Amino acid sequence: MQYQATVRIEQKAGMLDPEGTTAKRALGQLGYQVSSVKTAKLYEIVLEAESAEVAEQKVDEMCQKLIANPIVHNYTIELKQLN
Amino acid sequence: MKIAILQFGGTNCDLDVLHILKDVVGIDAETVWYKQENLTGFDGVVVPGGFSYGDYLRAGAIAARTPIMNSVKKLAAEGKPVLGICNGFQILTEARVLEGALTTNEYPKFRCHWTNLRVETVDTPFTSKFRKGEIIRMPIAHMEGQFYAEEKTLAELDENEQVVFRYVDENGKVTDAANPNGSLENIAGIVNPSRNIFGLMPHPERASESILGSDHGLRVFESMADYITENF
């Protein structure tokens, strides 16, 4: 079975998000008053696995080992079957 | 005595470190391409600065997961010294041999200028030639240098005196203005609990000859060489 995992990575609560803060300031200069801007990173990973559970487990492992840094990031995984 | 200077794709401070070790300190050193997975015969390692793998994913993330890093861990387990400078520090935290993480500067810009540092401990293989509390000068050049660690880790770093250098003003005071990147507690460099792995964001190799404006960084390399002579 082929699956596509969408991994969303964001900074843990309380951490600085300099890119978000800068974007917020720049929006302000364009006349948009927004309460906050937060950045996140998105990865789409396509993989073969016997089942959705196995696919999710594998992607979680990938996040722990490489895609995210658990010291500074929280992440969510959304899975969809492709075929 | 021979020191290995690691080279990854995108490393660019390797030859500066080689010059300082060979021509200024006067010890044997060699650059080692990351595909060589064996570090037998080396008494210490420098992971130099640069932009390994374009800082993709996170600065240092890819280099940290190459097989040569297993050899670095093995060498460190023998008590031999490992020094990570700038991107090298990022690689060592990503490899989880040093605590915490280095993230985007509080003001998200590449900062390249001199900093004043306070020597917090001389009880490491890299700082034996300093005086505790001494104020020294070294330049920084980075965009992801903000040191972050969870509160518990931070408390442990303080308690075990693992913080080696802090950014300070010219009077030696820890201030926000002297903090170039938003690092927690103005931390510029730390050692691991066994003290033989040292990572720092400032560049000691760019402050190792007085013609460069400071030779304070030279003592990092000299301390490292002394430690190897005494122990290996």
Explain the overall architecture.
The complex is a heterodimer of chains A (83) and B (232). Chain A has 83 residues and is an alpha+beta fold. Chain A has two helices and three strands, in the order E-H-E-H-E. Chain A has a three-stranded antiparallel beta sheet with strand order 2-1-3, with helices on one face. Chain A is elongated and about 50 Å long. Chain B is 23% helix and 25% strand. Chain B has helices at residues 14-25, 68-77, 87-94, 151-159, 218-231; strands at 2-7, 28-33, 44-47, 82-85, 101-103, 111-119, 135-142, 146-148, 163-168, 187-191, 197-200. Chain B is built from five helices and eleven strands; from the N terminus they run βαββαβαββββαβββα. In chain B, helix 2 links the parallel strand 3 (44-47) and strand 4 (82-85). Chain B has 232 residues and is of the alpha/beta class. The mean pLDDT of chain B is 97. At the A-B interface, helix 1 and helix 2 of A face loops of B.
- Helix-residue proportion of chain B: 10-25%
Extended strand count of chain B = 11
- Write down the overall geometry of chain A: elongated
The CATH topology of chain A corresponds to: Mth169, Chain: A
Distance between the termini of chain B: 8 Å
User: Largest chain-chain contact?
Assistant: A-B, 12 and 18 residues
Count of separate DSSP helical elements of chain B: 5
- The whole-angstrom Rg of chain B is 16 Å
How many discrete domains of chain B? 1
| Unreliable residue stretches of chain B | none
Chain oligomer state: heterodimer
Biggest sheet layout of chain B: 9 strands, mixed
Q: Could you give a short account of the major beta sheet of chain A?
A: 3 strands, antiparallel
Placed side by side, the strands forming the largest sheet of chain A appear as: 2-1-3
What is the structural class of chain A?
alpha+beta
Which sequence of SSEs, written as H and E, runs from N to C of chain B?
Answer: EHEEHEHEEEEHEEEH
* Coarse structural class of chain B: alpha/beta
